[in-house]
Amino acid sequence: MSPFFVMSLLFGLTFGQTASLCAPSEYTIHVEKRECAYCLAINTTICAGFCMTRDSNGKKLLLKNALSQNVCTYKEMLYQTALIPGCPHHTIPYYSYPVAVSCKCGKCNTDYSDCVRERVRTNYCTKPQKLCNK
Question: 18-128 has which fold?
Answer without folding.
Answer: Cystine Knot Cytokines, subunit B (2.10.90)
